[in-house]
Amino acid sequence: MRIAPLRIHLIKSILKKIYLVALVALILPSLAWAQFSIRGKVTDKTNQRALAGASITVGDRTARSNASGEFDVQDLEAGTYRLSFRFIGFSEMSTTINLSGDRVYNAALSPMTVLTDEVIVRSTRATESSATTYRNLNKEELDKYNQGQDLPYLLNQTPSVVVSSDAGAGVGYTGLRIRGSDATRINVTLNGIPLNNPESQGSFFVNIPDFASSVDNIQIQRGVGTSTNGAGAFGGSLNIQTITRRDSAYTELNNTFGSYNTWKNTVNIGTGLLNGKFTFDGRLSRIKSDGYIDRGASDLKSYFLSGAYYGKRDMLRVNVFSGQEKTYQAWNGVPEEKLRGSAADLNDYYQNNKGVYFFTPADSANLFGSNKRTYNSFLYKDQTDNYKQDHYQAFYTHTFNSKLSLNTALHYTYGSGYFEEYKNAAKFGNYGLPNIVTGTDTLKRTDLVRRRWLDNHFYGLTYSLNYNPSSDLNLILGGAYNEYDGDHFGEIIWARNNSSNEPGDRYYQGNGFKTDFNIYGKVEYQLDDFLLYADLQYRRTGYKIIGTDKNLNSLDIDDQLNFFNPKAGITYKLNNANNVYASFAVANKEPNRDDYINMPGGRPLREHLKDIEAGYRFNSSSFRAGINGYWMIYKDQLVLTGKVNDDGEALRQNVADSYRLGLEADVQWPLSRTLTWGLTANLSRNKIDSFTEYVDNWDTGGQTSFTHNNTDISFSPSFVGSSELAYRPLKNAEVALLSKYVSRQYMDNTSNDSRSLDAFFVNDIRLRYNTSAGRIKNLEFSLLINNVFSELYESNGFTYSYIVGNQLATSNAYFPQATRNFLLSAKFKF
Question: What pTM value is reported for the model?
Fold first, then answer.
């Protein structure tokens, strides 16, 4: 009866050993299985200038030209190949060659008669010669992962990334961390326009569901990266570009069904290029899932519309897209006593908390009777988060001549929505309502349903002026100005005992108004085999908060901050396939809304970061590898310390000194023509030099402090690694094993193992098959089996400590992730 579990354990053990071997393989040289090569140089036909970073495709192999425009595709078997060359602003060139020996092929590309979409994001992108560490994902790579899970899950196989899901299966509210930094420190732009909420500073992809189906490519920059628009990047940047020009008309139908009654239906349509100048594209999507967690359901809808005009010197594109989400709340997690404890432990939890949560009989039955991994404390049928977000973007590009071009954009985003909550035995006074007095009795509490609303506007402009006077020099002047106007208010929509509340009354109402201006200048200069890079950015933010907060406190905050963010780097080309680089960057970041309104009698300090990066890249047709070292030195980083204000709201406090020191590796290794291995690894040390922890003392009614030195930064694992082993038994078929290992993560900053997430090792299997049938140009079936060995793990959680009876106690809650589950997809392209 125990044979099956034993086999699973053995297989997992073998996979872990293979994974360790993979890490050793990061430093091994590539092997060659084929015989011949194609090499040459890519130049501008009009002036013979070398085109660095041109894309070269030989059959199913791809390569990039180096700083001298040279390329070398090796390990090719004899046969007939389609050879293609692409470069931004130039017409594609293709030819067919018969390869029976080494070949030299020089390509001279002609400037395009119309502009291309790539110029929209060019000013904020890193290239192969940049002194920056990054990973590019093109549309083909994104489509492999896009089965209906949220966008962070599509990035899970990239270096230093950890993802999590409130509902446990990757649909609904999901989280993303890069190098241990959460979403508030990851700058996200859509076509160069900021997505991060200016107040909370987080990015909520649930508000734009299935957005990946309208994405052409993503660049992930780790660390500070290049100057871009939006809040400062303290962990990384996601630079997302939506659909670009497609010359042929198309229709695509994508349908997915999976575990937990998960459905995804997507329709994409496009006219192709009309009259050589116009394109129109559209998408309509629906995603529904019951979630792994009880009542962790999601109902998500979205659309994307885009129209573009392409001229000889001008390009105009307008994007309109919107998302609407309704997700049942699963953000309370599962108490440790429920997840891992005994019956006695769970009973102690109930006794200790029944005066806090006011358990009803139904709540009590749910706590003791539900499944321990899928428990959700919420039972009210409309305990949901509801939000709609509309985006409008307009881009205009003008090329003055072959050396000078201008990119501009206008944008407007409107968001509105609420989360609804049922509250047991809520105090009238917490909602500004009088108690109910009947004779000699005074009623101070009532059951009620409340809604907390957000209603906001975000608008502005971005621009970049690009000047390329020679092949050795490139200059960019760019910047942006944005404004955010957001209302926060609360309503009571029902109360069992109503004192004086009327429908539509708001028990609190506040407003946040934020301005964000930045201007930056970049220069790249090629000096023989050296590429020198400098980037200077000035940023100014203004933030005003007025009205009342959810605790009925009066707000009157006005803060103006000025930031100077310089960056510099150098890249040295060792040869056509190898380069080394080093960079130094400074970033500054403002506090978020909660930092301002929760801190009593003072203002939080800005955060300051110095980022030192150095790396090595090897890029040939048979082997690609990059290794990067980083040292991120923080001053006044804002972290949770346990400190609370008079309302019990947790405060983030500035800690004087902290750092992240790490080594990353990113390898793509074609073991043969049918077998490919992708590997990533991050080994890091993430420390706070010294800070004071505050713990609620229930014996005294105050807080007790403890000093900690040299502790780990929360949610910053010392090792993160991934492996993707893909086998193609047939030309149109692929079998892939996707593995992810994340070491222990501490849920606070004390390095206390009892307040941590255990390490986890999760494996997925992906099967894909492509064919064609009649009018169907491409028919793809794919099956994604997530967590194939049903690893029991939690990727997120929170902790709370207190003193009672002169003893230190800790209460943990976790977000369990789904055991074995599947997503089955069928994609039709016409």
Answer: 0.88
